[in-house]
Amino acid sequence: MNILGREREQDILSRCLESKRPELLVVFGRRRVGKTYLIKEFFNERFSFYTTGIPDEKTRNQLKAFNESLVNYGDDTKTIPRDWFEAFRRLRVILEKDTIQRDYSSGKRVVFLDEVPWMDTARSDFKSAFDFFWNSWGSAQKDLLLIICGSATSWIINNILNDKGGFHNRITKQMQIEPFTLRECEAFFTHNGIRLGRDNMIESYMIFGGIPYYLNLYDNRLSLAQNVESLIFDDRGDLHYEYERLFQSLFKKPDNHIKIIETMAGLKKGLQRTDLVETSGVPDGEGLTKALRELEQCGFIRHFKKMTLQHNGVFYQVIDPFVLFSLSVLRDEKIRSWKAFLKSPGYYNWRGNAFETVCLVHISQIKSALGISGIESTEYAWKSKKKDGGAQIDLLIDRRDGVINLCEMKCTDKAFEITKAYRNDIINKVDTFIEEVHPKKSVHVTLITSNGLKKNQYADVVQNNIPPESLFL
Asked: By percentage, how much of the chain surpasses pLDDT 70?
């Protein structure tokens, strides 16, 4: 087994094997996040049956591919199934054979159906046949572990997890595969002989996020800048057109998703639904609700409520680093080369914003560094209503224990040094926030840096200093 990190996911898979009941495990997550790799590596590709759907193919070709897998696992019929009912009937025959391959440790029959959403083509009987297969036979097999997986997260959730028909309350376990954290990225880089300092690892996360497939494309002979140039900016690079492919692969009709994500990306602090309708051109209604839900289920956006607002305080915000990088940098026609862009004023502006996103997706690590892992909190940005002398706060961690962490995030080439002017700016932010919001909680200034903090006479304004190592917890 060659799996880095993923402790929680491995524990779920182990418990499925140890279970004394039939298990139907649903695995989902965004494109390129490593779902298939995890399942194959964990079981060492020792399945009682494995097959995968084919992208953009009609029912007959899906059944043809399924038939190839049936033959590989001992089916003697060999002809292409007429429909999905026949396909699953023949699968059952294979699984009932005494010679079927089983998991070594548990003796369970492990069936892995990958990219299931692709199998469910228009006007096919896939879902009803799969429903019948599980409910009429699979759910009674105590030694059966059936794993279904797909990148089209919205299909998985709408048709399986939230199904009101045959799969209602039938799913025994579900597992959302999320991008690597910085700690997992570090383990990945070390394992693959890629030598990067932690500051470069943070910058890598700002661009590629924690997507294992993207990281696996790194050439360990090249620097980070050279890898970015060859993978993304070179029109022959593996990721040059990845943004365009991303939503097409996840959603059947991605136009609204793209409009929403591109509108949100332009307002990094988040925006409310009414503003989204006004600026995106996507009409209010069920279509918008569905697209927002699907984007959040895929991990591209998050929603949060600002505790400083009494009502209508739900905001939406893009939190996917690669999407934000693609929209803010790669699509900028003025930026033709990453090497030329480095160290420019535009680069430093992008880096500051991108570091905030890295912090946002590592809130649990920041809370751990603060010693408040078990305390509920809400995270949001805030902007003063004042036109002159106002303030903007990048991140507030509003805690249930009577404290608000007012977070400042600084990405610098060397240890950050607080100047007298910056100290006064922080004091103004705290005073303005308290004056306008009237919080019934203590406000603690918290500084999160990419290269540490240089102590001086002005550093006393900070109650909590979160060094870059804390993001790797």
From this structure: 98
The whole-number pLDDT of residue 171 equals: 86
pLDDT, tens digit, 9 for 90 and up, residues 128-147 = 999 999 999 999 999 999 99
- The reported pLDDT for the residue numbered 394 is 84
pLDDT of residue 310: 57
CATH number at residue 445: 3.40.1350
251 is in which domain, residue-wise? 244-328
Render pLDDT for 69-104 as a digit per residue (tens, 0 to 9). Answer: 999 999 999 899 999 999 999 999 999 999 999 999
Query: Within this chain, do residues 168 and 45 fall inside the same structural domain, yes or no?
Result: yes
The more confidently predicted of residues 154 and 322 is: 322
The answer to the question of residue 16 being in a domain is: yes
* Rounded CA separation 152/298 (Å): 8
